[in-house]
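### Sample
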Amino acid sequence: MNNQIHSIRYPFAIDDGFGKLAEERSYDQHIIQMIRQVLFTNPGERINRPDFGCGIRRMVFAPNSDVSANLTQVIINQALQKYLGNVIEVNEVKVESIDERLEINIVFLIKATQQRKYLNLEVTL
């Protein structure tokens, strides 16, 4: 498979060298960008897709506990399967509540290339 793709970079940016929209040319990075969009978009934030996203930024205001971590884990898993199930297979979502932060570890398989990838995020509460 051709591992080149031309899509608008997320987060939105301007390419300094060309003075135009920055593009993402790596398919792997494009998939990671799509995952980040699902994770950081709050439901109701997109006009034409009001249920899109899982809104982990909201967890900044939630009590930091094992219950919050488990709830976040379920929300992330369901959102990734719902919105990106055609391009990735989610192998594992692990969310841990450590002090004032949530550590999110996602293991997924890119279906088109059969490559296993990891995405590790930290949400500070």
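Residues 66-84 form the longest helix (19 residues). This sample (IraD/Gp25-like domain-containing protein) is used throughout the tutorial notebook.
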